[in-house]
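note to self: dont lose this again. the chain is below, predicted strucutre after it. 834 aa total, dont forget to put it in the shared folder this time
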Amino acid sequence: MKLLTILLAGLCASTFGYLIKVPTTPTKPRIAPIGWVNIQKLMLPLFDNICEDSSDPTIVKLSIEFAFDSADFLETEVIEKLQSFKSSKGLLAKGEIFSETIDEHFNEFRLVYNVLYNAKDFDIFYKVACWARQNVNCGIFTNAIYLAIMTRKDTEKLSIPAPYELIPNYFVRKDYIIQAASLISEKDIFLSDNIREDGNTFIVDANYTDYESSEEAVLSYFHEDVGLNSYFYLTTLKNLPWIDTEFQRNVRYGEYIYHFMKQLIIRYDLERYSNDLYETDGINWDDMEVTRYDPMIMYSNGNDFTSRQGICSQDVISSLKDIENNIATTVTHLRDGGFNKAAILRHVMDIMLFNDNSYINLAIKAMTDDISTKSSLSALSHSMTKLRDPIFWRIIKKMVENVSNSLKVLPGYTKNQLYFPGVQIMNVDVKKVMTSFDPYVFDVTDAMKYGDQDPNFQIKINQGRLNHKPFAIKVNVSSMVVQKGIMKLYLGPKVTLGEIRENKNLFMLLDSFEINLKRGSNLITRTSDEINNISDDFVPLRTVRKNVIDSEFGVDALPLNSVRSQIGFPSRLILPKGSSDGLPFQLFAFVAPYIKAIPGGSKANIQLNYDAIFSPGYPFDLDIDIQELFNLPNTLLKDITITHKTESKPGTYGSGYNREKKWDVVDDNIMDYDIPSDPLALGTRPEFTKKKDAFDYKSRKGQYGKKDKYTIDKTDPITKIPDETVEFRKDIEFNKVYTKNEENSDNIQYKVISKKDENMAIDKIITKDVKTEDKEGTSIDTTELDKTIDDIVNDLKVEPIYLLSSPRRRYPTIFNIILKPPYKETESDERVYE
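---
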């Protein structure tokens, strides 16, 4: 693509020039070359009716001809280990239930994956996949093929199928699955109230589970969201510690895993806040009430998922308490041994998540009796279904609390890791944020079809899923110098400044991205579809098939998207549900420096701030002075409201309880603030969060008289009336805070700050044209202003600077916790076939 370079030069000392690359031709989306099209075409039949033997001729032929030749694999021992396991213990039968919590099942899955991953080329990989498709248990094959596609270079740009299309019975209530199956099997079809016919397609309207506890029923739309459960399943697979990828080898691997779990429970607590529910309670093993839970889903062999009754194993409770009591001691011991935070969290995550007797595995074992009843397991036994069970969220909460408390022994961030000299966030603007429940339809035909059937006949499931309207966040940043930084945006519940210290773990990282600051004002706009590490809904398998056929006939229809870009957090769930009259939230904006702040501004000992900014939870992952953080000029806390389209409901959705939330409880010892008795209650919300009544213009009809009464003639005399009013047009100064009187601004409320309160934490958000003088003690380097235009232009020719532009390439991962991988523009996609 041709590029035209334009040099913009300033005409006075207060402005300066910078380079912008302007494309002279439109940018085309990356389309899959013919090699990727062929690979995609070969892979598609592997996913048809995945829990039954394939009838595809190619798969049948290659599965029979496959030979276990160790020379075809990068690690020769992987094929020997699989054969040894097969001969000694035997492979799990195709009709049996697979669970990652059963050691024998998990070991077999690991062996099958290693064989797939270590195949020397795609041809060998595909032959192994065909053999596994016909001979390996459905659950093991599904896990292994997903993980292999996510980790192999020659499959990294395939369009992967949605898990809920392959095994819909793990995601949708069994009564609707039975209805869908009957529509395929029976000749005489009787339509019910929840079944619609649309040509050759039958659409089954499926509600969510109605729990015995109405508190959990109100959140069933979140627990059971097909996108959220698919995300957790695929991310859990991708995060397994024994996989040999760059992610697992990264020194911050433990930090990323902890951040993933922490972000997950924060997002859940925000949804509880939206429904007027308590913050999640972590499990207290000594005193806990566990409600019976029936997932109401079924296995592919027809058996139901077992209901969870409560605590099933008291013997495991003592082991769980030992971990909780000793985790802080472990962190202290590692700290004293010279380990940094990244290394410490790697060890801690092994204890909490990855070891055979990890905290989370023991907690699941304490809640279930699945090991003794392998024929019928519970929702906690599968990564696809764990989030459906409300008790799993309490387990995550307890685990995150234990880790967070143990990290308090580590030194917090210093001011020079948080302060950004010369940078100030002037304002944050967010317009009209709205959520709704939108109908989401997905195809389940391939998972249920059998024999020769009409290829145009389809069965689809329709569910109401939480979504949001497109929105944009605008941040106005003032900078004294040209420099780079990291912008972080956090979303949290509306709490007072005094309560933020106790509730910093309720702020979810919404986005994190690099910014290029120029001298002066920088208006940074971030739209909802630009947020990092999120993914749209999966492309339906039927659409992928059509794209492949179109591509074979010369139509550029198959996009070349990385697998990682398809398995991020569901974009439709980035915002918690609002309310009809506007639910108050807070947006925390933070511009982090690449270089540590040095007193005196000396450049002799420049230190990079990588230890902080590359930590995914920075700045909330360590114990810091929240008041000091929020007083920094490079931070800003903005009140926003999220409204909800009231006529949209997900089925069993209810209005929730009017209960006092934990974050409403005010600790009088925190800070002396004027705090409302219930700041989160709908009736006492700030006026700006309430929906205003529509103005009735018709009621004013006629009061202004008729048009002809206001006409004048040129001959009419004009009488000048003396002006006896005083027009306040000047800026008004109150203790160094300037306000401007504007038209139609009679209702503007100005906050006057006295000199004695200058150290008091206040909102730095000013809603009108407000000017502030430079703070006392701030020194401004004027050497840049003394440069001539030629000096500026010469400086700018060294390296082009791209202003306020977010990276075009995304690297979807866990809430922006994975570093950008190296990308070479000259590297051809066809290299995988050489």
